[in-house]
From TrEMBL:
InterPro entries: Phage_KPP10_Orf10
Lineage of the species this protein comes from: Bacteria, Bacillati, Bacillota, Bacilli, Bacillales
Organism: Paenibacillus agilis
Protein name: DUF3277 domain-containing protein
Length: 134
């Protein structure tokens, strides 16, 4: 019987060569393609046709503690409407590399201040989204 192991410390998020730190609790990064890869169409007589979608867009959501040292950098990227690279790299098994070379921040996260730390969620649009599993 094989046992798989996962370690959150083996997952890195790298934006323009900077390693992001200060992640929030629970799900700190999520990645997904914005649209289905293929759509099946069925005719009146049951014939099936398949349409391959060529939409290269994907999204990466980062949940950071409000004390993350990279909040300033991400806020400047959003404010200045800069295009940047983003890679989410998992050294767990299986190894994964998700992201792209052209990304923008969709909008600044909500800022909340309370008696305890509040997380900030950055949603990033990846224009050339790729997901490699090895």
């Amino acid at each position: 019987m094989s046992i798989g192991f996962y370690d959150a410390k083996s997952v890195n998020v790298i934006i323009n060569g900077t390693y992001i730190t200060g992640f929030g609790e629970n799900t700190f990064v999520s990645c997904e393609k914005d649209e289905e890869q293929a759509v099946a169409h069925v005719g009146a007589r049951g014939e099936v046709a398949l349409a391959h979608k060529n939409n290269p867009l994907g999204s990466v959501k980062l949940t950071l503690m409000s004390t993350s040292p990279q909040i300033g950098m991400l806020t400047r990227l959003a404010r200045d409407k800069k295009v940047f690279t983003i890679w989410v790299v998992s050294h767990n098994q299986p190894r994964e590399r998700i992201g792209g070379t052209k990304a923008v921040i969709k909008k600044l996260p909500a800022a909340a201040f309370a008696a305890e730390l509040e997380d900030r969620e950055f949603e990033i649009q990846v224009l050339d989204y790729t997901h490699i599993v090895s």
